[in-house]
Automatic annotation (TrEMBL):
Species the sequence originates in: Gracilimonas mengyeensis
Residues the record lists as 4-aspartylphosphate modifications: 57
Chain ranges of the Response regulatory domain: 6-124
Name of the molecule in the record: Two-component system, OmpR family, phosphate regulon response regulator PhoB
Keywords, ordered alphabetically: DNA-binding, Phosphoprotein, Transcription, Transcription regulation, Two-component regulatory system
Domain OmpR/PhoB-type residue range list: 132-228
Lineage of source species: Bacteria, Pseudomonadati, Balneolota, Balneolia, Balneolales
Keyword Thylakoid belongs to the record: no
Pfam families associated with the record: Response_reg, Trans_reg_C
DNA-binding residues (ranges): 132-228
Length: 233
């Protein structure tokens, strides 16, 4: 399989299914399109390691979307992937039942292709199942593509400067950086920033990281770097 996110799409309506599958593929997703529950179960059995998210219509032949959702939540590999119900059924009790079954989102038809894509992107950002270009130490993940930090899969709201310092330290955990080296990295063309500004940014970064702030160590008389006690954590 490719490095793209793979979506399991279960939709029995030919026209709408084809449109959505093609649209998602044009937006750099791989799509496994099943037109009934039986085919969905086959895709799950054969491709579980590659599926990142599921979009399920409720009313499909053989096994409906609710059964497929149950199967996903009980599966040892994909039990925690985002599941979106995309359905014409708009009664409140159906939505509540879907969410109680473990669905993460519920989109009523008709929904625009861009709206579906926005929901998909939101769920994938929250779960972030593909960490192939992430740096990980313990519960901390630094996403080198989106320039974001997650702790226990929760996004940590960092400023650009705070993220830059974190990436610098996490990418090179064996190095210790002086304040001047960090300053040159974060100040761009502004040469009038005081080097003690670095201390403030590091302090704020540690506070936002909570208990994981211990990963960034002050090396007295030198500067800042990764806490080598946790290098192999």
């Amino acid at each position: 399989m490719s490095n793209k996110h793979t979506i399991l799409l279960v939709e029995d309506e030919e026209e709408s299914g084809e449109m959505l599958a093609n649209f998602l593929e044009l937006n750099n997703y791989d799509v496994l399109w099943a037109k009934d529950g039986k085919k969905a179960f086959e895709y799950i059995d054969d491709n579980a390691n590659d599926i990142h998210l599921a979009i399920l219509d409720i009313m499909v032949p053989h096994h409906d979307g609710k059964e497929i959702c149950k199967q996903i939540r009980q599966h040892p590999v994909i039990y925690d992937i985002p599941v979106l119900f995309l359905t014409a059924r708009d009664e409140e009790k159906d939505e509540i039942e879907g969410l109680e079954l473990g669905a993460d989102d519920y989109i009523k038809k008709p929904a625009s292709l861009n709206l579906v894509k926005a929901h998909v992107e939101t769920q994938l950002r929250r779960r972030s199942p593909d960490k192939s270009n992430w740096i990980q130490y313990g519960h901390v993940y630094v996403d080198l593509d989106s320039k974001e930090m997650y702790i226990n899969d929760e996004l940590i709201e960092l400023t650009h400067t705070e993220y830059t310092i974190a990436e610098m330290i996490f990418q090179n955990p064996k190095l210790v950086y002086s304040r001047q080296q960090i300053l040159e990295k974060i100040s761009d063309e502004d040469k009038f920033v005081f080097d003690r500004t670095v201390d403030v940014h590091v302090k704020n970064l540690r506070l936002k990281m909570g208990d994981e702030g211990k990963l960034i160590k002050t090396y007295r008389g030198v500067g800042y770097g990764f806490n080598k006690e946790y290098l192999h954590a």
